[in-house]
Amino acid sequence: MGEGQHHAEYSNYQGDLSKEETLQLLVDSYEAVSNDTRNWVANLSNASSLVWHAYHSLKVPVNWSGFYVINPTKPEEELILGPFQGKVACQIIKFGKGVCGTAVSSQKTQLVANVNEFPGHIACDGETQSEIVIPIIKDGKVYGVLDIDCLALEGFDEVDVEYLEKLVTKISESNDF
Amino acid sequence: MGEGQHHAEYSNYQGDLSKEETLQLLVDSYEAVSNDTRNWVANLSNASSLVWHAYHSLKVPVNWSGFYVINPTKPEEELILGPFQGKVACQIIKFGKGVCGTAVSSQKTQLVANVNEFPGHIACDGETQSEIVIPIIKDGKVYGVLDIDCLALEGFDEVDVEYLEKLVTKISESNDF
């Protein structure tokens, strides 16, 4: 970070960038910010903020961006809430349940155009219409998920998948879970 | 939580409550939400959201609400960033440095009307004007701090101290750090 630059400035995306440029800047900013520590709570907290501000600069009505991680007290069964931006969220999600739980059990990104049509969708917020969830995988093991909710239907597409998977790869490499 | 209520609804404070009523609701909502788990990451993530939405319902221009916790790799020396709402933040704060570090070393709430006049203030965001920091103490030991920043001078007063200290007492009781 340059002399005199505040950490908060990483959240100030320019409004005139393309979607691809904004999401690449998100990936690059995460890499810069996470350089100081391998503490996952600190890095995932800043990552939630970077994701939130990137999508808001693109005028995508994201209402929740954050993480669920493997619950250390039930590591074979469930996710527990991690750092996020947005409204209060459900604490526990069982593997295989809802969009997040499906991302864990399938180890695959879930791109959901309409959450109301997703079997077993868990509504932490009844206003959410679409969602994307990317599993954080290292050496074949899932450590958690990046979860982003949107107030609009079809809030995310293959471009989001491409860049958010890049972000999550960086997250899996830069943290000790 | 009532049948059919979403977790997100805890973030929806009514705009016509007094400051005291809103802050008491914040304390009560934290107690309800944290009832499910003693996992500190999950509970502090939801607490950050409750604080953010409480102050925004009161039209207080809070630009950051969240936590720093004792860095597990340097527990005698420094705080590390925990869950928060707002823009990207500094990861590490040394004990005794800035408003947060002073709250740890003094074990006392810091109510700062103008951060620019606080000796050794650490500016994660140059736009912050006032700040309140409450240490999380259990059995005489500090586990972290609740930190709230405001874009206005004198954003907080003795009413905030009273209710936020109640909140932090609940936080210290309801989590395994």
TrEMBL record, chains A, B:
Alphabetical list of PANTHER family matching this protein: FREE METHIONINE-R-SULFOXIDE REDUCTASE, GAF/PUTATIVE CYTOSKELETAL PROTEIN
Pfam families referenced in this protein's UniProt entry, alphabetically: GAF_2
UniProt domain GAF: residue ranges: 76-171
Similarity field: Belongs to the free Met sulfoxide reductase family.
Cellular component GO terms, alphabetical: cytosol
Organism from which the protein derives: Hyphopichia burtonii NRRL Y-1933
Gene3D superfamilies in alphabetical order: 3.30.450.40
Lineage, highest ranks first: Eukaryota, Fungi, Dikarya, Ascomycota, Saccharomycotina
Classification via InterPro entries: GAF, GAF-like_dom_sf, Phosphatase_reg/MetRdx
UniProt protein name: GAF domain-like protein
Superkingdom classification of source: Eukaryota
An annotated Gene Ontology molecular function: L-methionine-(R)-S-oxide reductase activity
